[in-house]
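Hello K.,

You asked for the raw outputs rather than the summary table, so here they are, unedited. I folded two proteins back to back in the same session to keep the settings identical. This is the first:
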Amino acid sequence: MFKTLSLLSVFTIFGFFFNDIYMNQNNLIPTTFVSSENVSEDQNPLLQPWSGNYGGYPAFDKVKIKDFLPAFEVAMKEGLNEIEKIANNPAPPTFENTMLELEKSGHSISRLIAIYGVWSSTMNSDEFQNVETIIEPKLSEYSDKIAQNSKLFKRIEKIYNSEEYKTLSLEAQRLTYLKYSGLVRNGARLNETDKAKLSNYNQALAALYTKFSQNLLSDENDKIVVIENKTDLKGLSKDLVDAAASAGVGVNKGKWVINNTRSSVDPFLTYAENRDLREKVWRMFISRGDNGDKNDNNSTIVEILKIRALRAKLLGFKTHADWRLDNSMAKTPENAMKLMMDVWKPAILKVKEEVADMQAIADKEGNNIKIEPWDYRYYAEKVRLAKYDLDQNQVKEYLQLDKLKEGMFWVAGQIFNMSFSKLENIPVYHPDVEVWEVKNKLTGKHIGLWYFDPYARAGKRSGAWMNAFRDQERVSGDIPTIVSNNANFVKGRPGEPVLISWDDASTLFHEFGHALHGLSSRVIYPTLSGTNVFTDYVEFPSQLLEYWLSTPEVLQNYALHYKTGNPIPEELVKKIHAASTFNEGFATTEYLSSALIDMKLHLAEVPTTDPDKFEKETLESLGMPKEIVMRHRTPQFGHIFSSDQYSAGYYSYLWADVLTADAYQAFIEGKGPYDESVAKSLTDNVFSVGNTIDPADGYKQFRGREPKTEALMKKRGLN
């Protein structure tokens, strides 16, 4: 998953880019900073340039929460002074004295936001939430001051319309165009009254985004299911029982605990025989943010939708969806809706087949039940075993987290010529975090650093994501990137290998694909670097990497039994491939229902005042199967309500998957998954170019044509 700060549309324009795959925002708008202990600028570690080898790295070991507020005060002042100096330059505007200077600015706040984002998404606490409450609206105000600087916009506009523009390199032209068009989209042409109104909207949204995120995090941290009797865990494998026991020790609530996160809930729903407990766990999970208490998100959503609609109209767009997709591959909501509906119809037909198979097993067992949402994963696993003789618990025994990580590194070496070496003396923000140096395995040149934070813990947001602490660029020297992958795998007992499911292994490769996208970047300007691309394109490289998990080379060398060390048997691999499209009706419908609700919420010119009612009535009109619930119900839909990044954009995963399925066919049509010439073309035209070219052009250069949807439908078993 890929996600960013709400103000990132402006930060991206000016090169202050922070890629966080699960960020959050705020709930109050104070008028001034609240100082904690006074720390001088020279002493505040959050304001110091990153030192050390590899182009420097964050001093995570020196971070203190009390230092964030004074650091932001200094960094924002410095950043605005840099912008004012560029905007008020008496010399006529040129690419060098305006665009290039913008690319060189903002280093202090960029470094600070990178560290702040780590604490927000992985080290969150009550103390830090107080910081967020103050900082987020201030960051929004800061970005608006840049986006609404009339003198700066006029300089950029003159360059964009100048003769000089025609003589610039294609990359410099792309940079100028994106900054100019980005400013226009963000209100640069508004009058002063409307600019002030827009800034108020943005600050209010920043507050609401964090309120939403903090409410969700509270429900995920505080609501659990405690299991007193081990007999109630019947059906769960030993590693899952051990994980529940470890969670119980952590909260001291009982012998076994199911946490309110997907990594804990999904395995329980898949294997637990106790139907009443499955329902209890399911209801806990799908009710996050929707319990009518202090953490209920419905009123927050209403305010977000209302302000987004007002902002879109102020900016000259019919709806928020029209504004968001104006800067995307899809271009219009209608294009995105057409793709979704083309897939939706065959997906729900597939669900009917899946439910019939499950109901037949339940009837045969004499359980006298109708399949309900808390039964779906449980009986789907029984169908999988009956149809394909495929036991996911058996597969899991071959999926050791550490071995799969080695497999990812091997794939990166084969496709992207990268090597990974673990570093022991780099400061980290939590003992779980590992740091690896990435080099070009052919030349030995340093490429970047890769941080890996694999395990769930209190204060860490659920899900999996990638972010960049620093983007690759060549404006201020040859600056290497620093990226991270973050997950929420459940730790078992000390000293035992962490075993993960096939789905979790796919997610592991997916997020590593985001990291490789950032690590592959070879551009000049930081604004255009790495993953700084359209939302409906950024998921393409990550989803593509999932394919390499199932290649024989990876499975035979890295899918090793956790006890014997033997590779996964060929017979079991054949079963995995045979069942590759199994349950795709469920997976596609679960995802698409969320994407459709997202789009319909943001296409409404008059926003809903009752999100739960809107969700229920819209799903009924779509023919949503009653046995399935949305992957992300509206009150917990962090993708679209913790920032703007995926709002009216959750369709992006499907849009990118069209490219993904079609792109992998290029390897199959060649010499196979490790075809060197296809891999080089993929690197040259997709992974390394960032946003220096239009993504549609980059894809056509790679594939030699426009993408086709046939491979997607075949991949999902919907053709």
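The second followed immediately with the same parameters:
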Amino acid sequence: MNDSIRLGEAPVGLVDLAAVARGRRTIELTDAARRAMRVSEDWVAELSAQMDRGEDTQAIYSINTGFGSLSGRQAFRSSAQARDLSRRLVVSNAAGVGRHLDPEVVRAAMLIRAASLVRGYSAVRPEVVETILRMLERDVVPVVPEYGSLGASGDLIPLAHMALVMSRDESGEAEIDSGEAFFQGQRMSGVAAMAAAGIERLVLGPKEGLALLNGTSFSTAQTALALADAETLLETAEIAAAMSIEALMGFGDAFIPELHEARGHPGQIATAASIRRLLDGSRLIDGGIGRDPERQPPQDAYSLRCVPQVLGPVRDTLAFVRGIVEREINAATDNPLIFADRLPGRSLKAVSGGNFHAEYVAFAADFLSIAVTEIGNIAERRLFRLNDGTLNRGLPDMLVASEHVGMDCGYMLPQYLAAALVSDCKTLAHPDSVDSIPTCSNQEDHVSMANNAGRHARQIVKNIENVVGIEVLMAAQALELRLKERGFGAEALAPASRAVLSMLRATPATDGRPIGHLERDLVLYPRIHKAAELVNSGAVLDAARAALV
């Protein structure tokens, strides 16, 4: 993971993106990328030279004309006007509001913009990409408000806040017009941040302003990071589910491979196999491969029995979303695109289209949100079952063996919290992609709302990380209670459950106190916060995997 990403050599994958966004992995601009960019750059440079020579020059959208409904038909007369146009676009579009986006989102968007520009269709100089890469390397992170993008024409407003920091007015400007950025965690003006990092701010050339702004980078960054976390969350949710099934002495019949092969969905088959591995070796599970169940009827509630049928579709959905996201990370998404060495028979090599329209990303984020909400939906039902003395097969109410029944609430309130979080997700998971509000004098009359969809997907993933963290806490408590009730030692547990339980008990909560077995009420939020961290970081997943080697 310490190797540099060689931009322009191979596509940037989801793992690469997350490493840059979170781990500050370095990036190099390859000679191949510079060569690819030079073709369209030279075409626009020749156009600029024609303008400066006073030759008749055709009007080419965004290079020597206005934007959107203001494009008109009259070409500007000089390359100086075209350069001024680029900077004015950046200034006018920096109009966002709301809380600033997490630095990891901004860093991811910066890499995505760079990956798009090196495709060579955007007519920008290598210096533009090199500036972005130096900002990433030296930890200059523009302050970008969360609201403003419609997901077409790309993420104009958030990208303008990025471009404001890295570019400057050729004739001079006030510091206040340089935007804001974090430099090594300190918030300051764009001018100050770039100076502190030793990076020169650029005078943008013709087309370069729109090339920086007119793309799906922030929508894709939000969705990509949500997906990276969702993939870890899904596998952790399977672990938590297996622990709950074991604590509730569930039936192994529901995970027999023939049952899932009869239906044929790959995600369901994979999740059933995962649950079998996680439960292998447990003395608490009734029935399964080669062993008849002892209790009748051998059926659990759906929240236990149907884990493969619910989390399996989540697996398949996330795989579909990954395909869209990884293609979009590397897509050329500005407008127009310049095909200078192609399109025989045409003198106009600038092609206006709609690659900035982020419907692909909007769908991906919406599908991700729906799928992850279902992880929480079914997990919360297991929490309820663990707490209910009439449903949990003999465990104490609220998973606390109080000396005097009623003195302690135990895990009553964490289930309330999970219910609140899941309910929030049900609202957030309403698809943003079905909405559209026309803009720009009806020129931009259908938009994707992909950035809203990406923001909501990230919040949903964070919510459900808390829900799954609560299940890990409660399932661990329930397993210890079950062992005591049965008179078993820890060796009766499946190795994966035993490893997660051991890791949890060896981990301090955020208040520094141990996450021990709950014998009487205490303040729970430090445990819940830490449990969510263990889910997000992959610590729960790592502990279970180590036990299964």
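Residues 450-486 form the longest helix (37 residues).

Happy to rerun anything if the numbers look odd on your end.

Regards,
P.
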